[in-house]
Amino acid sequence: MKQTPENFDTIIIGGGLAGLCNAIHLSKFGKSVLLIEKNSYPKHKVCGEYISNEVLPYLSFLGINPFDFGAVKINNFQLSTTNNKLVSAKLPLGGFGISRYQLDYILSEKAKENGVIILQDTVVSTRFNNDIFEVQTKNSENFYSKIAIGAFGKRSLLDVKLERDFIKKKSPYLGVKIHVKGKFDANKVALHNFKGGYCGVSKVEKDVINLCYITNFSSFKKYKNIADFQENEVFKNEFLRAIFKQSTPIFDEPLSISQISFETKNPVENHMIMSGDSAGMIHPLCGNGMSMAIQSAQIASKLILNYLDGQILSRKQLENEYISKWNKQFKWRLKAGHFIAMLFRNDKMANFLLQVVRKIPFLLPIIIKQTHGKPIKL
Question: How far apart are the C-alpha atoms of 189 and 201, rounded to whole Å?
């Protein structure tokens, strides 16, 4: 295909973790890549900001060492239920904490260094015709490519235009995030449950604590605002009350996002390869969504390179192999995440399970492993 300013080997729609990792991977092998992202970098996002160490080999392959940019090593896990009972365990693989503000910026700079064109714009439509994608942006520019990757996150207008099944269903979940300064063990990630939701706590770079919780909107709408909801619901968990009350907010206002969907999604839609949250999203209760987004980029990019280089002979073969590998890597994790979240929505069941885990402590690392993988093989 002749290369022009409007013609690329791959167009990536969305510049979060999955989009940026795909862009770096493909450009590393000389492919022309256009990444279209509506926001500028850096930007804070509602996110747990804990990543399993399973992705470190892949990030190294991309030329990124998160610890060079202040990432915090995490080896311990703590869990509490609504009746304020607590259990702790070692994380089987360990992980690290780094903000999306920092990580997205690092990845975007690496992508640009590799020659990726990053366009700040919004995609309004995609068409697939004669084996070529046509992508139109809000600024009325048209771009063409052999491959399109959908990495536009949890929920997008493109999901509506593609008539994806999950977008037709209302989602009851609301996510809230705040950064604070205070006392918290840097080597620990905690998950504290409250009635109608749960909150993740971990440190990121610059000694900042990330507090990110998800709740059912039906619980939240009973109150006037976020502060009122926290005071009356979140702070019934004594561990959360202590952390919030003994810390100083850095953000002027908490960040929030609604309509978060954990419904099943298809990894390929209208021949577009879906990556990251666009392909599937694990419950934050299982704390590994950022890792999944990064890993999905590795799976997609390796197959796309094989297709562009003629080792995969047809688009159908490319799509089938991607679906197969995506399901092999993530389908069980998503099922396990749904099941664990379902159990913890029932307060009595959650408290009973915690009692069991406290008596048989080796069970907790086994449960954690169900939503985590092994270090990525390159």
Answer: 6
Lowest mean pLDDT across 38-42, 68-72, 85-89, 328-332: 328-332
The residues spanned by each domain of the chain are: 7-43+100-169+262-369
Give me the sign of the Cα torsion angle 80, 283, 350, 363: negative
3-state secondary structure of 201: strand
Of 205, 13, 35, 204, the C-alpha closest to 110 is 35
HSE toward the beta carbon, residue 291, CA cutoff 13 A: 29
**Beta strand 142-150 pairing with 272-274:** parallel
Contact 45, 286 (CB under 8 A): no
Burial class for 249, CB neighbours closer than 10 Å (0-12, 13-18, 19+): middle
Residue 262: Cβ within 10 Å count: 19
- Does the pTM surpass 0.85? The reply is yes
Q: What is the Cα Rg of the chain in Å?
A: 21
Chain segment 185-212, per-residue pLDDT in tens: 999 999 898 988 889 999 999 999 999 9
Question: Looking at domain 7-43+100-169+262-369, which of 3.40.50.720, 3.50.50.60, 3.30.460.80, 3.40.50.300 is its CATH number?
Answer: 3.50.50.60
Residues 22-58 pLDDT 10s: 999 999 999 999 999 999 999 999 989 999 999 999 9
Is residue 84 scored above 80 in pLDDT? yes
Beta-carbon count within 10 A of 19 CB: 31
